[in-house]
Write a structure and sequence with these properties.
This protein is α+β, with helices and mostly antiparallel strands and about 850 residues long. The chain is built from 36 helices and 11 strands. Belongs to the SMEK family.
Amino acid sequence: MAGLRYSVKVYVLNEDEEWNNLGTGQISSTYDEQFQGMSLLVRSDSDGSVILRSQIPPDRPYGKYQETLIVWYEAENQGLVLKFQDPAGCQDIWKEICQAQGKDPSIQTAVNISDEPEEDFNEMSVISNMVVLPDCELNTLDQIADIVTSVFSSPITDRERLAEILKNEAYIPKLLQLFHTCENLQNTEGLHHLYEIIKGILFLNEACLFEIMFSDECIMDVVGCLEYDPALDQPKRHRDFLTNDAKFKEVIPITNSELRQKIHQTYRLQYIYDILLPVPSIFEDNFLSTLTTFIFSNKAEIVSMLQKDHKFLYEVFAQLKDETTHDDRRCELLFFFKELCSFSQALQPQSKDALFETLIQLGVLPALKIVMIRDDLQVRSAAAVICAYLVEYSPSRIREFIISEAHVCKDSDLFINVIIKQMICDTEPELGGAVHLMVVLHTLLDPRNMLTTPEKSERSEFLHFFYKHCMHKFTAPLLAATSQHNCEEDDIAGYDTSKNCPNDNQTAQLLALILELLTFCIQHHTFYIRSYILNKDLLRKALILMNSKHTHLILCVLRFMRRMICLNDEAYNNYIIKGNLFEPVVNALLDNGTRYNMLNSAILELFEYIRVENIKSLVSHIVEKFYNTLESIEYVQTFKGLKIKYENERDRQSQIQKNLHSVLENIVVFRGTIEEIGLEEEICFMEDAGEAVMPPLEDDDEFMETKRTQEGEAVMPPLEDDDKFTETKRTHQEGEAVMPPLEDDDEFMETKRTQEHEDKVDSPKRTSSGDFKFSSSYSACAAIGTGSPSGSSVVRLVDHPDDEEEKEEDEEEKEEDKEYETSPKKKPRLSS
């Protein structure tokens, strides 16, 4: 390869640490007798003089940068750069250098210069100062294209320097003049080079260059250069389209020339971005960020100019609300307003607020309400998009307008009900308009963007309004589709009467949208949606759709039920249990068979969630009703896990019942003993306090019986001349003792008990002869103060034989009730 020569530019670092161009010449690697080794020799193209003669010592570090640069230092602050025109020539010389140094060129091909010591290499400054564009001529277009395209793999300083050269030297207008020359000469090669140059300049992402390229004088020539893509067999005539086919239509005459020019420029810029430039890759996305910003800036300026022209906007809305406006004219006005809303996304929040206030004052919402009920599909679609823009920006203002209508409009004429009607009546096969309007409803019903102030709560006010005036209209298609009367008798087209659910694709999509929003409501409107679901039996009706042939609709029903169960609300759980609403889900699982698909996974996940969260009421219901049917499913452990949860809970409840029964028995057994102890303590306390009742005199014939209060306290004894004891009165306390008579008393007075404790009092024992035997704690000595320590003042509780019979009957009745409650009702036969 010693005899090969390649074109190269030589740069040297001077004393001021600036890089000077020594000239362009032909380089070769030859054996130098003077150095006794290989050297690099560059001779000038102009006069053949030697520009560079450099030895290749074995220890000198060389660096290959990009595909056309070789850099090295011969001494401190004496750097040299070879810039090759042809990458192949650079590679060949690089191999010669590596061969002379005994190195492998494949290893050294991609040298990371930043990894070398800073004192050895300073290539960044080399490249930054060596970007020089040749004169703008036809024979240099290839060099210009190489420089522009190669600069993207260089540091950002290279791109900035190139942009500075293009701006200051008026390079772009010169290039565009060459474009006309090449086009006139039909110089295809030159046109291909210009395509690469102009595309590269756009990817420089410099706003100062965009100002030049997108001016009225240059923009169409830029479009012309981008027509000649080397990848195309024939150039595309984009200029013809922009000039002849694309017509600028003014719905209202625009008198502002600056505004008109800005609209034209923005349209062409958007055309270049969307049509002419290739879609940037993930690594090139930032190359066009400034162009995107440039377009956004233009849009913001256009909206600001229109906003200031109140007469222009007033005329637009006046024609929109005019009933006599022709549909074609109305469509044009709506498309203009749609573009205005789209452009407004580029505004800052403060400017958006001002624009929205202007539109509200001009009556945008009443105007939209008028056009949304038109028969023209294009008009309705445009109105839906505009409505989505407005609701997304300020949902609170839209809600305020909707609520204000309730005082002056019927339910069917409310703005929100008009939206619901248009969503339901959408005739597009893919329901594009319905999807737009569903987004509008979703935003309006989202409590997270509702305001709450000390004066009022927007959430409660609007949700109360919606569930009262609108919810029945929103769910009407769902209720109609699941109505047995409609499906079987009316024979509506699109309904499968054998399965009692709609199988029309468009109807299924609409029902799926409705179910998705209802699922959202369950999560965020807990009280309102719960009342509505329970009153309308909505889940049962939705589960009819489990028989649909559309799997996506069945999955929507499952998500609806899953969200309900996820709340772990006992009202929902009881509703599901009493209605046996798991049966359609189980049937769907069995009908799906052994297919492992989304439906199978969704149903199993529903039962698995119940198992993991251990929702006890649902676990018991599922095991008792469906375990015999589902126990054969063993490829997941979900249903066995449910049975284990059920049995553990049953054992726990049984243990609790046993413990409670034991406690109650202990209370009954020790009740008398407790009362005895309490009475003895009370008597001892009274004796210690000197408040004991005096014994009667010896000559008294009778004593009056003492009276006790509800707490069992003693009262004053009767007078000495009383003939009989009065009957002691008892309070509501059970087990109070009757005071015993004295030894010489002839008879006892029967104690009186209150009516409400008749079933709870202690009964005396009945002897074999049928008499009652009282266990008295007082003896004769007790009457005079020498009581027996083992005496008892409480009548013990003993079961009568009749009572035992009554208890046995009660137990039998309870057993029957328990069997009736636990025995499962006869359920419909599940599909096998």
